[in-house]
Amino acid sequence: MEHHVTRAAEAAAPTSSPMLRQTNLSLVLRHLRDHVSRSRADIAEATGLHRATVSNLVAELLERRLVRETGIEHVGAIGRPRRSVALHGAHVGALGLEINVDYISVHGSDLSGRVLVERRVGFDTMASGPDRSLRRLSRVAREAVEAMKRAGAVPAGLGVAVPGLVDVARGVVTFAPNLDWHDLPLAARLSTALGLSVPVMVDNDANLAALAEHTAGVAAGTPHLVYLTGEVGVGGGIIIDGKLLRGADGFSGEVGHLPVDPGGARCGCGRHGCWETKVGLAALVRMAMPEQPYQPVTDPEERATEIARGLAAGDRRMLAAVAEVGRWLGLGGSIVANLFNPRVIVVGGYFATLAEWLLPHAQAELERLVVAGPAAQCRFTASNFGFGAASRGAASMVINRLIDHPTTIMDPIPRLAAY
Amino acid sequence: MEHHVTRAAEAAAPTSSPMLRQTNLSLVLRHLRDHVSRSRADIAEATGLHRATVSNLVAELLERRLVRETGIEHVGAIGRPRRSVALHGAHVGALGLEINVDYISVHGSDLSGRVLVERRVGFDTMASGPDRSLRRLSRVAREAVEAMKRAGAVPAGLGVAVPGLVDVARGVVTFAPNLDWHDLPLAARLSTALGLSVPVMVDNDANLAALAEHTAGVAAGTPHLVYLTGEVGVGGGIIIDGKLLRGADGFSGEVGHLPVDPGGARCGCGRHGCWETKVGLAALVRMAMPEQPYQPVTDPEERATEIARGLAAGDRRMLAAVAEVGRWLGLGGSIVANLFNPRVIVVGGYFATLAEWLLPHAQAELERLVVAGPAAQCRFTASNFGFGAASRGAASMVINRLIDHPTTIMDPIPRLAAY
């Protein structure tokens, strides 16, 4: 924060540097990312840069095709017409991947967020082990890179979402219980396997899904928002004042193993009564379809669809099971609401598939348990990204990084222009 | 944030305004608040303001006695000597108050944080009702104002800490269960009663205690820190990236009524198995001193001291009770750690009084339950502010506000100097 103050202030001073140029280009791009289409005057006002500086920066960004002219806006009846620009970069690709319990998901876009590739392939990650999983992930990534190149966009960065604890700075998956991965240097290994010279970033799936929701989801722009994954495991991503909460080590938002029932069933993690044992898909399947012999659940989406069919047909046992899970979802939601006071809790995965049956129970329980009561105005809402929120968020993470370091997508040697 | 970028950037531009002057003065004061003693060159570098601008601002702040010269620093062996300045304002007072279940606490300081008044008076708030409580609070405040004036500092703002949900923007206590206050317009009523023309601000006690800890406590400066009050009620204040988390409505950090045991005892709030029923002082007293007939607990500090004496003497029943409460403290701490990933959980009130017996159990349970395990590196530590953290934080809140609006403590009509 202080950092930006310094750079922007120097922008108007006589001194200049490649770093300053990078910062100012980034200020302009960031403003356009957050505001769709803006005039140069708007940008100058919002960033605190001089009008002339903004014109120079925009000229260079236009030349590099990172922004485009969007036409003429008339401001007020007698205002002068202003030419607006918007984020472009159709040749700059951002590739997002997610590897989860039973699938690998891909979301490729250009710098402006235009979708180029979207794909999901079934894959049994835990059974495959880390080495085979990495090979499969690399192949899917390579195919996506080729598809994006055919669409005219060369990936300038790659993001991967993983359901587990991630050391974000090193790109290492510390522990992903539902994949059985421990201390896996995913960024380094994927980078080597792909032979790409672009940055590879790794983060938790719920964090990235929260980023996707905040960027373009059902509650986009809501400054205080929590995202809950609804898979075999349950994770949380927290947006506070429009920013992803990471905490001291990047381990924030670990909602799955909240101890909600000290006398409850044993969880996969070895503890008892974790929230995941109440609201994870396995818990629902156990209650809704007790005749199903197979555990663990390896096909969450199919199973959720099957339960949705049963619910639509009025299956009483399924309705009771969903009511029970819904109440536990509301209890966990009340914990989240009491601690973070978000305006919206966006639920994804199977929670979203079954939202029409699940959320009324969850909302009622949330309102009963949250201390501030109705004053907290917190509502559950279903994501409409299906199981694709995390890979979409992984691509958003890449775009954000490119916008923070624009010279990496401009030219290899920063020009020492007088910004 | 963008806001600051704008202002600081304009500082170097030819335009000027009273608002800009305010912002630049504030930049300098904020830097000095966070860094004790700094040279003009340091300030220029950190704020992005021009050297000449900083010299002008510092000259004005010196003239107004809001900063003072602290002597000469030699930077390196051959560096030029630099004259440093520090926050001063010995004539500008900040008054912090806390009203809780059985006491009113006062902390008066000057702008630089030097303590001028510290006092606590016993008072049975719930039995007294809002009107009598307000009269008593006003009297205590008036006495503190007089004492501060005698010490040469006229209070320029007043902060009040309350154990409950506070609508911070309006200064209204929405709901304080342990005081039995509902929708009480505390700021307006106290302001009227005192007849002072300075701002009166109200916030939750745990939030303000967290602020005090982050400003000057045992873990001062730790960017990710959680504070837990240990009184009849239990509240939480959350610091993320050095800033107080408020959430969408200011209702964040409500840890006392986390549902930790669905089959547990009925809580004062009407729900069952709230965390407060496990770790609030009443729970400990019930287990440690079951022969005591009186409930509710109206004298937390005396009771905690009594239990500490018993523990020191090796009272077995008390030791068992403290172990049980310690485990529940660790369980709640694990919820906080899983969601926020703080580096430190500072405990206050009776938790701090009994820390030597309580925290080993709490720490062990935290480490057992937190998902990231030892990697999360979260430790419990006892506050050394006793029961005075919240009133100290209330004074810090006032100081922060004065530093954000420095012209209110400088002169009634902002001078249009060329900053």
UniProtKB/TrEMBL annotation, chains A, B:
Residues 27-70 form the HTH marR-type domain. GO terms for molecular function: DNA-binding transcription factor activity. Gene3D superfamilies: 3.30.420.40, Winged helix-like DNA-binding domain superfamily/Winged helix DNA-binding domain. Pfam families: MarR_2, ROK. Belongs to the ROK (NagC/XylR) family. This is Transcriptional regulator. The lineage of its organism: Bacteria, Bacillati, Actinomycetota, Actinomycetes, Streptosporangiales.
